[in-house]
Amino acid sequence: MKSEGRIDILIIGDATTGSGVSETLIGKGFRVARADVEGYSHRSRVGGAIVVQAGERGPEFEALGLEPGNRVVALSDFLEALPDIQPFDKSGGPAPLVVFLLGLAGESSCRATRDALAASSVLLDDLGRRVAMLYGNLKVSAAGLEAEVREARRKGALLLRFSSARPTFVRNGEGRPAVECLDEASRRRLILHPDWIVKDEILRAGPGDLERAARLGAEPGPDGFLPSDNVYRFGLETNRRGILGIIPDADPLGRDTLEDDLAAAMLEMRALDRFDSWAPDRVAVIDPGLCARCLTCHRSCPHGAVAVGERIEIVPQACFACGICEAACPAKAITLRERDPEKGPLEAVPRPVLLDIRPGDLVTFGCRRSAERARALCGHLGAGRPADLVFVPVDCAGRISREMLMDAFLQDASGVLVLTCHPGNCHAEKGNLQARSRVGEVRRFLEEAGLNPERVRFNTLAANMGVEFGRMVREFKAELDQR
Amino acid sequence: MAEPNVLIIGGGMAGLTAALELARFEVRSNVVESSPFAGGQAIGFSCKATSACVRCGACLAEDRLQSAVESPEIRILPSSRLLELSRSNGPFSAVVLRSPRVVDPDLCTGCGRCVDVCPEEAVRRAPSPYNRPPLAVDLDRCARFAGGDCTACVDACPESALAFDRGEERLALEPHALILASGFHVFDPREKPYGYGEMEDVITNLELERMLREKGGLVRPSDGSPPGRIAFIQCVGSRDERLGHLWCSRVCCGSAPRTARRLRFLEPELDVTVFYIDIQTFGRDFESAWNELRREFRFIRAVPADAVPTENRRVRLSYFDPETGSPDSLDVDLLVLSVGITPGRDLAGTSALLGLRRGADGFVEAGDSGNPPAGVTAPGTVLGPMGILDAVKSGKASAWRTLENLGMV
Amino acid sequence: MEEPTATISLEELDPDGFQSPDFLQDACMTCGYCASACPVSGVDGFDPRKLVRMVNLGLEREVVDARWPWICTMCGRCEAECPMRISISRLVREVRSRRDRDRVPGILHKGVEAAMETGNNLRLPKDDFVFILEDVAEELAEEPGFSGFRVPVDKEDANLLVTVHNKLVNTQTEDLVHWWKIFHAAQEDWTVPSENWEGCNWGMFTGDDEAVRRMSDRIAEQMDRLRAKNLLWPE
Question: Is there a domain that residue B29 lies in?
Answer without folding.
Answer: yes
